Amino acid sequence: MGRRHLVVLGLLLVGACSIELPSGVFACVSELECPDRWSCYAGRCYRDAVLEDAGATEDMGSDPRDAGTTPSDAGPSDASVGEDVGVSLCAENHGGCDALTTCDDSSGAPVCGACPPGYVDELGDGTSCSDFDECSVDNGGCGDPRYYTCTNRIAREPECACAAGHARSGGTCIACAATQYCAGGATPPETCPVFVPTHDPSEPCGGYAQVSAGLYHTCALGDGGGVTCFGSPAAGGPPSNLGTVVQISAGGIHSCALDDQGTVTCWGYNANGQTDVPTGLGRVLQVSAGNFHTCALNEVRAVVCWGLGSSGQTDVPTTLQGVVQVSTGDSVSCALDGAGNVTCWGLVSSGVTNVPSDLEHPREISAGGYHACAVQASRSPRCWGSSTYGEAATPTDLGSLAHISAGRNHSCAVDLSGSARCWGANAENQSQVPSDLGSVASVSAGGYHTCSIDDGGTLRCWGSNSHGQRDVPNP
Tell me, what's the pLDDT at 69? Predict the structure, then answer.
């Protein structure tokens, strides 16, 4: 060991604490680990000039280090030592600059560059860059937020895309039609297999949930609670302020709807006051539109009827209570109570009011023109009243039924397998179920036509089309 090194070692042992030095740059154990013109002092490498200025290198002697030896640690942190050996002040901790910025130490001190586009310089000196949400200002420049969405992206420009319910056409996002489902973004429009005029194109395609066939018109309820009616213009169309509808009923030349708040609204032909919903009904659970009258079942399980009552069809029996279903026909009305009893009132000559005494606790009832039908507890059918066209003569091979519907002069039913059958009058092919109909969820027998909805929500009608009552609206 040279004399110079002994001096340094002695300083380490007895006087290091009294010498003021800048922070060492490289850790070391011996001189061999320091660059040329540097010495190992107190476990760190210092330039010889620094040590001399501090009085730590007096009479140290020559440097015995081998040529070509390089330090094991390359990361200067002392701005006073970087220039002599070409060590960058930005090498350690990027000079204190944010990793997203540049660092320039050519001036003798680290200088940080600007934050990149899309970032905010929080301190204004390039030491702290945070992502900026461009979408928070003017929708990121994407355009009207009703038509365009903006997605913020780290270190990139925001992404602009079409909003749900819209699709790109010629570089522009345009609103989709009710016949389509547009998910937005780059997804192309999807044409809905079932047309529901009230469908929101930002929602997936739906189908029809209910159908009610009237005398010369048809009303259907979409999955989203929207109502569409078609057929006789005299029956009118649903009001625009219906709200979310949960049940519909098409009568002779009028229709009624029940919304999710228990409110009934009726429209169409009103010569007999059949659309004048009485006040004080309370919350309604079900509504049924007859030929020229209407009945409703309210939350206290009472039935209220209004409209034409010349045959007594609006004269609800005072003994009626605990009702679970009401159904209206041409000049008759019927109700099913919780005990399984059926009561009918109205035109006596129709035979409907003469309810069979052996009727087996019905699950469902349906009043038609001058007859009525029921699905009994055993799921077998039972019809009574006028049967001029065989409408009350139920086929013996119907099987177990899930649903039944009595029309003006014909009847239809759906069995548990989804198979539809109709019987009675067939002059307009209203009882001729299409051979390719497939499985259905429900069926509705109208005046001279019939409609059904399958499990997928597809609505289909057959029979008379004298007023367009079976022309399901198409896209």
Answer: 41
